Amino acid sequence: MESICYRWPLAAIHGYSNDIDRLESLLAVQYQRWGMEERELGSVGDGMIVLWQSIAADSHLPHLLIMAGLHGDAPAGSWAILNFLQHNSPLLLDKVRLSFMPLVNLYGLRTGVKSNRHGFDPASGFSGDAPTAEGEILHAHARLLTQAARDGVLWCTEDPQARVAWLCVSDPERTPALALRDELIQTFEPCDGPSPEGDTCRNGLAPLPDNGDILHWLSQETRCSAARAVTPGQAALEQRIFAHHGLIGAFIASTLAP
Known about the structure:
By secondary structure, this protein is α/β, with parallel strands linked by helices. 33% of the residues lie in helices and 21% in strands. It is built from 8 helices and 12 strands. The strands form 3 sheets. It has an 8-stranded mixed sheet with strand order 3-4-6-5-7-12-8-11, with helices on both faces. α1 (20-34) runs parallel beside α2 (76-86) and α6 (175-184) packs antiparallel against α8 (237-256). The relative contact order is 0.17. The mean pLDDT is 93.
């Protein structure tokens, strides 16, 4: 079992990054403000995994899924979703159908460890291997998730030991990947060479690995634009949160660009 537990002070709430109950309550306020629909996917005993979606009357709008909170030592993406909702207008939903899944590994997020309570990675095992309990819940809602990610999926995560940032993308030459990279390197030094997780990066971009994780699974099912943004855990938490906020905005803007 993991011995290192990660949590960071978060001045905005006068608390810590692993105060997931506070995060859930703040998210609920924003989801109500945005008029989003709550879809309870299931629980493994540590809290409900929820997908929040805008209600799009026009099915031709781009469908984008933003994910975070799969690894408990990577909370910045979850807080960045809150930050994005707080600082943007619901009028955005006239242009795009957004779905947010910010809290998957609730045990890991509360305790500050990467894996779930059984020591497994909830993001793994989606293609061929047996998924975790959280993964089984997500697999049971495969149709819902693939529809949500029809035109793109962004996974906001981080490496607590890294000092550089990088993106794993389905197509490094496509506009969404380049726009995300340009956004990322405004804040962090890009990885150039092997990443701390073994990805082969070139100026902050790496091909999406064929590793059977949730992002690879969704990209294979939908053939959509897929990206995993990894920020460095050695940077300040607020810096990582604002970087992921910017990445969410850049991902949406690149999808909407003519």
